Amino acid sequence: MKYIKPPIFITTIVLFILIPATRVFSQGPFATGLKAPTKIITAGQSSLLIAETGTPTPNSGRISLVNRATGARGTLIDNLPSGFNVVEHSPSGPSGIKLDGLKLYLTIGQGDSVKPGPRGGLVANPNPATPLNNSVLELTLPADYEVLISGFALSMSDQNQLAKGSQVVLQNAEGKIMNLRLVANLPDYKIENRPGLPQGNVRPANLFGVEMANERLYVVDASFNQLYRVQPVTGDYFTFATFPSRPNPLPFGPPFVEAVPTNVRLHAESLLVTCFTGFPFASGLSDIRSLAFDGFQNPVFMDGLTSTMDVLPVTMPQNQSMFYVLEFTTNMLAQPMPPGRLRLKTPEDTYTLSDTLISPTSIARDGETGTLYITQIFPGNIVRIVPELALSNALRGEK
């Protein structure tokens, strides 16, 4: 079906209904000082929670608490599990985050669970920096977590206790308490014998996002190209869905390109999974998949995308939906790498709200004001966008 672009005033009126309050549009960083932020969510009355994968220093992962009016940053918890990812040559640690009441669910990524093997392959790392690579943790926050004066910190002893299945109780300088427990420690790797490599070569896992629906957790693995369903009380898990490779349209690279799921979001009675796609990162090959809760994988929900990192559904009047779509870059292979984009898909059309984002990874929305907050992993910051102003500029052809 061919949609007709609506007049500017119709689209703007719809957005003004959804976004009634603020008129501030920030081009520069809203909050800085983050350590490779991977995911962002709104929390409480006035906060943002950010999962930060950390620095090359082992166990430097962190969750920051940012005031979504002022941009002031504080540490909720530091020294979270992380390690150096030899596949992507970058730190890997906290990667996905979901808040349910005072329970905060956190995924830990690949870390240093593997190391280089013979002839360019990979083998399991017998001495990783943390026993909690590719795990799902549950943090029970203090009721007044938004106004904490001091943060919490995890020790190596705490990590070992969590890995053994024991609950850990942390106390900050104010005497506040945070409880932590291990929900599930998922596989770090699987055997993947490949031509030209020794027997026993492994493929590492890489947990990268988490959602909650129907009292179950859904966790994406960007390396195994699959979605786990996890029972948060017992830790039982199974592979809920896998995402197949697609033919490579470019004249170089492998014949098929992997899906590389990067996040999972709840929308109506389904789950939306963003697929970044692997090398050679062809433009327009990335997409968003829709899954029903019975495991049925629907036709592609949205295609023609490039390096998709996140999608944020928003319910409009008359129960229609619009979707904010975040793309990491428009060309992964270009040097220097071009900026990423924020696009808005409405029932009528698709609009580019920003094409100047630097390595964007995740998006959150203030339900009261409609303001959007986007993490940028390489600069280590958050930018803030007011959609109706950005859309008005886009329709007028302004940057």
When the domains are counted, the total is 2
| Secondary structure tally, helices | 3
Shape annotation: globular
Mean pLDDT: 90
The CATH class of the largest domain turns out to be Mainly Beta
Q: How many strands, which pairing sense, and closed or not: the largest β-sheet? A: 5 strands, mixed
DSSP, total strands: 34
Return the CATH topology of the largest domain.
Tachylectin-2, Chain A
Please give the CATH architecture of the largest domain. 5 Propeller
Rg, alpha carbons: 21 Å
Strand order in space, largest sheet: 2-3-4-5-13
Helix/strand/pairing class, anyone?
mainly beta
First-residue to last-residue Cα separation: 30 Å
Segments where pLDDT lies below 50 for 5+ residues? 1-26
Fraction in beta strands: over 45%
Share of helix, binned: under 10%
List the helices and strands and how they pair.
Layout: H1 8-18, E1 29-31, E2 37-43, E3 47-52, E4 61-67, E5 73-80, E6 83-85, E7 90-92, E8 94-100, E9 103-108, E10 114-116, E11 122-124, E12 135-140, E13 152-153, H2 156-163, E14 168-171, E15 177-185, E16 189-191, E17 202-204, E18 207-213, E19 216-221, E20 226-230, E21 237-242, E22 246-247, E23 256-257, E24 261-267, E25 270-275, E26 286-292, E27 302-305, E28 308-315, E29 321-327, E30 340-345, E31 350-357, E32 360-365, E33 372-376, E34 381-385, H3 387-395
Parallel strand pairs: 5-13
Antiparallel strand pairs: 1-34, 2-3, 3-4, 4-5, 6-7, 8-9, 9-12, 10-11, 12-15, 14-15, 16-17, 18-19, 19-20, 20-21, 22-23, 24-25, 25-26, 26-27, 28-29, 29-30, 30-31, 32-33, 33-34
Helix pairs in contact: 1-3
